[in-house]
Write a structure and sequence with these properties.
The protein has a 5-stranded mixed β-sheet with strand order 1-7-6-3-4, with no helix packed on it. A two-stranded antiparallel sheet has the order 2-5. It is α+β, with helices and mostly antiparallel strands and 155 residues long.
Length: 155
């Protein structure tokens, strides 16, 4: 019984060490994200301690940014983003490879405020004309994501 438990624990720990060896990213770094143009976009994650991790954006062919994880297995670095455009891919390589797809580069604005921010442009005076005008412009790309309203009670 004791011998079976020891063997099971050994197999389990060997499997866990393999899991730690894989490069992992936080959920916020994923497919379909938008990064601020012409800035240093920060990337971070986890891998095996001492593992070499490389991050490359498809807009910068051949230019990779290598970094080595610390003793805690954490790593962080930044990539310089180009002018607005896309879609691009971002490849993160270590002992495994993660490819982030459909990455857009542009202006990123985080807005917060009054309840009137929920008012939709098409319902405003001349709103439909403004929407049409914006969608026919070829030089700009605009995207607005409206998050569901959540009420938080504080005491």
């Amino acid at each position: 019984m004791h011998k079976k438990f020891s063997i099971g624990l050994l197999v389990l720990s060997a499997g866990a060490s393999n899991l730690l060896a894989e490069v992992k990213l936080p959920a916020v770094l994923s497919d379909n994200m938008v990064l601020q143009q012409q800035s240093d976009a920060r990337f971070w994650g986890w891998a095996a301690p001492g593992e070499k991790v490389e991050v490359q954006g498809s807009w910068a062919k051949g230019a990779t940014k290598p970094v080595t994880t610390g003793n805690d297995g954490k790593w962080k670095m930044s990539l310089t983003t180009p002018k607005a455009g896309g879609p691009y891919t971002i490849t993160v390589k270590g002992n495994n490879t993660i490819e982030l797809k459909n990455i857009l580069i542009g202006e990123v604005w985080v807005c917060s405020g009054q309840s009137n921010m929920e008012f939709r442009l098409p319902h405003a005076t001349n709103g439909k004309q403004e929407v049409t005008k914006q969608t026919t412009r070829k030089s700009d790309f605009s995207m607005c994501v409206v998050l569901p309203r959540r009420i938080q009670l504080t005491m």
